[in-house]
Amino acid sequence: MKNHTLSLALFICFSGSVYSQNEENPWLFEFGINSVNAEESDKTGYKLPTLSLSRYIFNNFSVGINYSENDVNVSNEDLYYYSLDGIIKYNIPGESKFLGMDTNPYLYAGYGLSNFGESDVSFASKNTSYGPSFGAGIDFQISKNIALNTGISYKALDEKNAYSNLQHVVGIKFNFGKGDSDGDGVPDKKDYCPDLPGLSELNGCPDSDGDGISDQKDQCPDKAGLNSMGGCPDSDGDGFSDLTDPCPNKAGLNGAPCPDSDGDGINDNLDNCPNIAGPKSNGGCKLADIDNDGIPNINDNCPSEAGEKELGGCPKLPVSLSNFLNNYSEFFFDFDSYELNKAQKLNISDLSKILDKYDYVKVNIDGHASSEGESDYNMQLSKNRSNAIRDNLIENGVQDSRLNTRAYGEDKPDYPNIPLSERKKNRRVILSINMDL
Description:
Elements: H1 2-13, E1 27-38, E2 41-43, E3 47-58, E4 61-74, E5 77-91, E6 97-98, E7 101-116, E8 128-141, E9 146-155, E10 165-176, H2 319-328, E11 330-332, H3 342-357, E12 362-367, H4 375-395, E13 403-407, H5 420-423, E14 428-434
Helix pairs in contact: 2-3, 3-4
């Protein structure tokens, strides 16, 4: 009875199942050994064979037959025993493990014949009795289709030459049929994903995101998407799936996956400054412009002075030239002379250096004379004075085409004729910038 008690304890402690007969694996065959403990018996032992064959019907129920043979000693008499029963079995659903193996408990009830005493199998033997049986057991799954089994049953017999008995069975079971490894109701032969429970309409494959596309074919199995995009979504609706769209939340334009927010011709995904227009050569970012005149330093001939685009970024009147003219725009000459003194020549040299930097600047050189003498003579004198300044500038490298000489004689005096100290200031040359570019 110790073995039977152990079987019942195992059954109670490890009930639960993840694997059992089903419509795809309907057949189960068992081969094992058994022991029989009959009423009034004083000795029992394990012997071969115990054979069982069952077939799944529905809802965890199956039907089958059990056959067992053994030797039983009753009242010091050795008797040959065999039994043949038809059974109805119920696999208990649930999940558990024992020593790393999945377990599958079951209950069954049956009815059949038992024989004590004769080795001749005969339904009409005087030692043959009929009665019900009840049992329970547990399978320990060691592979997909093979399980170890232990079970116990009680058979009630009240006929002459028959003994009610407990039977303990230990054996190995083989499950076979069409095969459905993942238990999703789709046979392995038709299941495109035999190891993953799935949907019959998707040939047994799962659809994790519920978009109607099996995970096997879904490029984005965790996000519901469109079949036309391999199962991926298109969040911004621009015709590019999120999987390949570098800007998945911003719709692109003109067949591009990304917009061009700053309109510089560079898509936002490639633009280092997507909200500020800039050239491609600078990664889409605005070029440095120290003087803020809209002309980048790289193209600005005068990067530190705000200027005009048509002048290469330089001003019409550069600050350095303006400062020079504020101090040296008038060159004064002696009576009846157009000779330049040393200081004037130094100033002209400084002016030439400034003009060399701003090669677009043109200069007006206007000669004047005081009112002494004939007007024709004074006109020529004023012209000579203008030419003296021009020639000196040319000697210092300024192109003649940039110099506009004019003579006014005594016609445009800026100072009165009386006294002499004022009148002599009209013997001069005035420099100005020609603003007609």
